[in-house]
Amino acid sequence: MDEIAPEYDVVVLGTGLTECVLSGVLSVKGNKVLHIDRNDHYGGEAASVNIETLFKKYGNVRPGEEPWKKYGRANDWNIDLVPKLLMANGELTNILVSTDVTRYLEFKQIAGSYVQQGKGAKATVAKVPSDASEALRSSLMGMFEKRRAKKFLEWVGEFSESDPATHQGLNITQCTMKDVYDKFSLEDNTRDFIGHSMALYPSDEYFLKPGAAPETINRIRLYVNSMARYGKSPYIYPLYGLGELPQGFARLSAIYGGTYMLNTSVDEVLYDESGKVSGIKATMKDRDNEGDTMSFTTKTKKILADPSYFPGKVRVTGHLLKAICILNHPIDKTDGSDSLQLIIPQSQVGRKHDIYIAMVSSAHNVCPKGYYIAIVSTIAESDANHHIELEPGFERLGKIEETFFGAPIPLYEPIESGEKDNIFISKSYDATSHFETTTDDVRDIYRRATGEELVVEGLRDGQRLAEE
Amino acid sequence: MATRAAAGARPGARFAQFKLVLLGESAVGKSSLVLRFVKDQFDDYRESTIGAAFLTQTISLDESTTVKFEIWDTAGQERYKSLAPMYYRNANCAVVVYDITQASSLDKAKSWVKELQRQANENIVIALAGNKLDLVTENPDKRAIPTADAEAYAREAGLLFFETSAKTSSNVRELFTAIAKKLPLDQAGPRNLRAAPRPGVDLRPEAPGTQGAGACNC
């Protein structure tokens, strides 16, 4: 076994997407990176797993039974643990392109983006309009409301924060989105699908927040521009599942000299007299031979880590409810789409947080033909009966072959910025349906850890890359 | 993945693209073999792999048949057994390299072959390459692995086999040509070639819209 270097610029703990993007970027920038994961696979909470692993992970197995066997070859399944999709024009796409990680991955469109109106037997499901002209054809609104929505969306396209002439006479940095909707006389249902299925706010917190209008407009624009990119929906998705994303960035990091060690546990974090991190003690286990271990100590000035490596330095901000469902049919009222995002806005079903359904299928090489994997998720609003909280989502799915539903998942964030100890901790993957908050976290950690803004455009230009 | 049409190809011409992965212990010369094949270069004092992570090279098998290799280097992730499943995914062929002057490196090569059989496509074409032939030519005492031993193992395991030198380029081209000849080109017949668009979308901003036949990411 090769020796570990005596010192690294950065040690990264955990191979989730946030950590792998940062590892890749830091390696490209010339940092000497050691990247460790206690698991024997990449991805951490953002991994994709096969169906046998999923059955075992959720304990849906009675002794002596092998229920996954009726679902074909276990390895034909790549089931995401995080229910998220990429915005076609979003920041993760930008980072993928700028770093050339797109070379290792292949992406496909998600076939549709839907929103529910009403509840129970009266619920309708409609496509989310992608622009002003589609708003005119949408079944979500009556005739006069369609015109008002079209006017609103046209204004969103023209809006410029620095040009008061486009502010509709509103004090745009102070007013609320309610004021803006009022200005366009939009009905409640329209406000609902614009705020939740286009601006993709998971709750109504934004609605009465002074000064939230410019951000809301930017979010609607991201949706509209992402939609315009490929046509069917604003979302794209990597073949073989989201677990490919961390692997791609890990490869980028390795190409630029990053050292990778899976199956390696951190035994101790070392600090200097001033309380700053100075190194780690760790042990790597051999995957094929349990007894064969290698313990080592190495110095480092900085540690980047996911919350699970520093339970004492993080706090819980909420709980995510998530059910992974295997179907053998597409979802009713969605034009037979092989993949989709379906949002049930909170107000439609008497909740405070939206219910999301993200569905992919064999079209994305995540399961055998004839199967569909749908993840229903929301933020927990009660201490018990979590199944009932997700019920409106289950209703949409129809007949379910298999449900994997565990305890509420705590969402963590770091208590401190990392300035004191040089340990920079990421946030958990939140309840939003896309990766925009993940890339915000990447930027935030990069800023805290390096004191610079992360600029990914042209990142690889002029860097040492021996041959290509 | 294997078959992509070449834009503007001559009628009857066959063009097929294959993913090739490199495996083997550290410092047996994986990257050097590829650099010799792709760039016809050799560097005695090369550091361990940095950067040689995505290379392509085209071989003409005959007047009408062209094979393009999309070559993936381990980027050093094999060192602590941390290669990602992505590395093996859709690999059509593999070169497993050992060093004929290091006795243990053939055992390591054998375990990589097992790993390939576990993780990669069933019909993957595997070649075993005993590298650093130049060292033995200069000084026969340096040989630690007899040709016959490696050859017997390769035959038994159904692998192509060559002893190579990245330094002198001995057998390097022969190795890759033999792989190209063993790949299922018939599946890449002219009819398939025309109807083989990449299924996905191209993320690059200069090329919006779905990618059509003939596009390639290299």
UniProtKB/TrEMBL annotation, chain A:
Single biological process term from Gene Ontology? small GTPase-mediated signal transduction
Query: What's one GO-annotated cellular component?
Result: cytoplasm
> One matching Pfam family, short form?
GDI
Question: What molecular function terms (GO) are annotated for this protein?
Answer: Rab GDP-dissociation inhibitor activity
Matching entries from SUPFAM superfamilies are given as: FAD/NAD(P)-binding domain
Matching InterPro entries: FAD/NAD-bd_sf (IPR036188), GDP_dissociation_inhibitor (IPR018203), RabGDI (IPR000806)
**Family (UniProt):** Belongs to the Rab GDI family.
**What name goes with this protein?**
Rab GDP dissociation inhibitor
Give the species this sequence originates from: Aspergillus homomorphus (strain CBS 101889)
From TrEMBL, chain B:
Please indicate which superkingdom the organism of origin belongs to. Eukaryota
Q: What is this protein called?
A: Ras-domain-containing protein
Give the Gene Ontology MF terms in alphabetical order.
Answer: GTP binding; GTPase activity
User: What Gene3D superfamilies does this protein's entry cite?
Assistant: P-loop containing nucleotide triphosphate hydrolases
**Could you tell me which residues belong to the region Disordered?**
190-218
The principal location of this protein is membrane
Q: Which CDD domains match?
A: Rab5_related
Its GO CC terms are: endosome; plasma membrane
Keywords linked to the UniProt accession: Cell membrane, GTP-binding, Lipoprotein, Membrane, Nucleotide-binding, Prenylation, Protein transport, Transport
| GO BP | protein transport; vesicle organization; vesicle-mediated transport
| Topology versus the membrane | Lipid-anchor
Q: Which SMART domains would you find in this protein's record?
A: RAB, RAN, RAS, RHO
The species this protein was found in: Aspergillus homomorphus (strain CBS 101889)
Keyword Lipoprotein belongs to the record: yes
Give the location in the cell: Cell membrane
